[in-house]
Amino acid sequence: MTKQIYKVAIIGASGFTGSELARLLSQHPNVEISHITSESHAGKAFSALHPQFSGIIDQKLDRASIIDEAELDVLFLALPHGVSMDFVKKWHHKGCKIIDLSGDFRLSSPEVYQNWYNKEHVFTEGFENATYGQPELFAEQIKKSNLVANPGCYPTASILSLAPLFAENMIQNHSVVIDAKSGLTGAGVKASETTHFSNVNENFKAYGVGTHRHTIEIEEQFSCLSDGEVQVQFTPHLLPVDRGILATSYAKTKKLTTQEELTKLYEGFYQDKPFVRIKTSPPSIKDVRGSHYCDIFPFWDKRTERVIAIAAIDNLLKGAASQAVHNMNLMLGLEETTGLNQIPLRP
Ligand SMILES: NC(=O)C1=CN([C@@H]2O[C@H](COP(=O)(O)OP(=O)(O)OC[C@H]3O[C@@H](n4cnc5c(N)ncnc54)[C@H](OP(=O)(O)O)[C@@H]3O)[C@@H](O)[C@H]2O)C=CC1
Ligand SMILES: CC(=O)N[C@@H](CCC(=O)OP(=O)(O)O)C(=O)O
Asked: Is residue 338, in this structure, part of any structural domain at all?
């Protein structure tokens, strides 16, 4: 039987997640990369911009406007928030499957989006067809979807850290606290004062306290899993490292009395999920760096009757590019692990 090859395009390949997508997709056995785009570097070789691809991906960067989407099977949008929606509006009816890495389609409706961001959503007709692309939770819906909203990096680690407890309605008062730390690549390729070397090096700080945009994304997903509306106290921090997210989640629980019960619950929930590994000690970001794994350590603190669940992912991979490839595999009916066999890079 001949192997099926799918044509894909990566829109926004000069950025961090776009270049990670190119790395993964260039090694995917069922994919041919038809186009990689950049508006500001159009005409240059991809490898001139990202020298690690020299002799591997020397393909030219195109402008997005030259793409004939009718010839494509899958479009990956690795674009900033607020930009993706214009592309989806233009391309959604052309038959190819779209995987959007931005936050434009992750919330439940254009109204929720507009209220939260105080900004109009340009794609309202058909917004409801977007599927939240967390493969461990919504694989069956993703398989049938033509528009997947790839989850955010903080939301992926946060949601996976507590999903088993919400799914079993074991959280008291529908209320949790999540304290998360991200490497600098989470802020995108453009340098800013916040990401300036001297502001980050040997430094560590919280930001977006009480206001970060991921709060509502996490709350909505937990509310979907749970029997009531969930409230999340979410505080992100900037780590002086290239990549990695460590999320530490705290929850008062019901019906739980031992560590054994908690471990069994997590192992059962993630039993057939090949990329979630349940650990017996706290994971570190280097345990998952460069891979599609999410490592989780669920800990039962008997004294305070709280669960502390610690999750580690690579923000550019499980938090973005490899999650998008996982979603593509599901949407195309391929084995979900295809092209995602990267072993974590450590030390
Ligand atoms: N970095 C991370 O860890 C994660 C990022 N995400 C999300 O993924 C998306 C991409 O992130 P990331 O790769 O970090 O972002 P970058 O800032 O690194 O890259 C963004 C890309 O978008 C392109 N771009 C910017 N403006 C426009 C425009 N108006 N029209 C067309 N192209 C444009 C840029 O290309 P050029 O200027 O060359 O045209 C660039 O290639 C974002 O929505 C982000 O929130 C999600 C999870 C994790
Ligand atoms: C370190 C850093 O700045 N992180 C970004 C989140 C990463 C990202 O862009 O993710 P989403 O697409 O999920 O929003 C932030 O806090 O806004």
From this structure: no
Mutational test site, ligand 2, from 106, 212, 214, 315, max ligand atoms within 8 Å of CB:
214
Q: Does a structural domain hold residue 146? A: yes
- Ligand 1 proximity of 14 Cβ (cutoff 6 Å): yes
Number of structural domains, the chain?
A: 2
Q: How many CB atoms lie within 10 A of CB 203?
A: 11
Atom of ligand 1 nearest to the CA of 320: 47
Cβ partners under 8 Å of residue 203, min gap 6? 240
ipTM above 0.95, yes or no: yes
Which residue range(s) make up the domain with 244?
A: 153-313
- Indicate if 192 and 218 belong to the same structural domain: yes
Q: pLDDT, tens digit, for every residue of 115-164?
A: 999 999 999 888 999 999 999 999 999 999 999 999 999 999 999 999 99
Answer yes or no: 153 catalytic. Answer: yes
Q: Is pLDDT of 90 > 80? A: yes
Residues 98 and 176 in one domain: no
168 and 28 belong to one structural domain: no
Torsion of CA 152, 154, 156, 157, to 10 degrees: 170
Nearest ligand to the CA atom of 315: 1
pTM over 0.95: yes
| Axis-axis angle for helices 110-117, 214-225 (nearest 10) | 140
Whether 134 and 255 map to the same domain: the answer is no
* Strand order across the beta sheet in which 306-313 lies: 205-206, 231-238, 175-182, 245-252, 306-313, 294-301, 276-278
Indicate if 288 and 326 belong to the same structural domain: no
In this structure, are 117 and 63 located in the same domain?
A: yes
Whichever domain contains 90, its CATH number is 3.40.50.720
Q: Is the CB of 103 under 6 A from ligand 2?
A: yes
> What residue's CA is closest to ligand 1, atom 12?
188
CA 188 to each of CA 14, 244, 283: distance values in angstroms, whole numbers, following the listed order: 10, 13, 25
